[in-house]
Amino acid sequence: MIRAIKPKVWVLLTAIMMVATVSVYVMSTDHSAGGFNTSPAFAINWLYSFSGLVVGALVGLTGVGGGSLMTPLLVLLFGFHPGTAVGTDLLYASATKSVGTVVHGANKTVDWGVTGRLAMGSVPTTIASVYLLYRLGVHGQVASHLISISLGVALLLTAVSIIFRQQLVAYSTTHWKEPAPQTKALLTTLLGAVLGVLVTLSSVGAGALGVTVLIFLYPRLPVARIVGSDIAHAVPLTLIAGLGHWWLGSVNFQLLGSLLIGSIPGIIIGSYLTGRIPETVLRPILAAVLVLVGVKMLT
Fold first, then answer.
1. Do 110 and 232 form a contact (C-beta atoms < 8 A)?
2. CB neighbour list of residue 274: distance below 8 Å, 6 or more residues apart
3. pLDDT grade for 190, boundaries at 50, 70 and 90
4. What is the C-alpha to C-alpha distance for residues 151 and 293, in angstroms, rounded to an integer?
């Protein structure tokens, strides 16, 4: 599917992402002295960029959401506060998923009706969740614990969906009865509402969990269109949630710029390697890692 995109389009998408990265870097620098502050605090951290490269490649290879990989990496390996890790990853996801939406849109694998119904539910609950973090104090102990618990639960659910994805798809197409149109629309909006809360608190869930539920709600819809619709919905969801975290002061723009620099080539490399590395090897390993990390976040 991704290989159907012409090289010229990939060049354009890469250019757009590079402009976004430069914009983030400019926003994070100090211009008070009449120029850029080039102190180490404002420099790109190439270790973070390498992490973005690895996560981007895994996302391109497996389709697993970057939040389930990047956020725990930032918390457990690099020691970032859970609120900062979630907030930064949300804006990171909004940028990378924008590229994915362009790709799926070009391939006509987005059902905008599904995307719209998801957004009807997710936008209000995203705003409500941001307000909840504001009331709790995003950097406080209570909010930090809430984010860690939400992240752990989301990682465990994502691991389950990764392990049983093929079985669930097979079951939905052979045994599952498609809901009535009105029921389906209501459940889609309800799914968006749940994702709005979960993603705002953990930055995880919009991909694996959203797609898994949509497969049961729309068993006749091709999986490619379900994935494309879910990615398109994730753009406003992660953008609104990310901007909310920015308003709360829980976004690290230096970290964001570093991650984007690495993830741009990573996603492209992983996308072109899709099919050359068997998913039967990668997915169980990823699921096992997510289970371990999820349990760690809960304890």
1. yes
2. 2, 3, 60, 61
3. very high
4. 9
Query: Measured between alpha carbons, how far is 299 from 70 in angstroms, rounded to an integer?
Result: 19
pLDDT at residue number 176: 75
User: What is the pTM assigned to this prediction?
Assistant: 0.81
3-class DSSP string for the chain = CHHHCCHHHHHHHHHHHHHHHHHHHHHCCCCCCCCCCCCHHHCCCHHHHHHHHHHHHHHHHHCCCCHHHHHHHHHHHCCCCHHHHHHHHHHHHHHHHHHHHHHHHHCCCCCHHHHHHHHHHHHHHHHHHHHHHHHHCCCCHHHHHHHHHHHHHHHHHHHHHHHCHHHHHHHHHHCCCCCCHHHHHHHHHHHHHHHHHHHHHHCCCCCHHHHHHHHHHCCCCCHHHHHHHHHHHHHHHHHHHHHHHHHHCCCCHHHHHHHHHHHHHHHHHHHHHECCECHHHHHHHHHHHHHHHHHHHHC
Token pair of 277 as six digits = 């590395």
Is residue 118 within 8 A of residue 192, CB to CB? The reply is yes
CA gap 264, 17 in Å, rounded: 7
Q: Give the model confidence (pLDDT) of 231-287 as tens digits.
A: 889 889 999 999 999 999 999 998 998 998 888 788 777 767 766 666 677 778 888
d(CA 22, CA 257): 7
Which residues 6+ apart lie within 8 Å of 257 measured at CB?
Answer: 21, 24, 25, 28, 44
The helix-helix angle for 208-217 and 165-174 (nearest 10°) equals: 10
Sequence-distant (≥ 6) Cβ neighbours of residue 74 within 8 angstroms: 80, 84, 85, 88, 89, 255
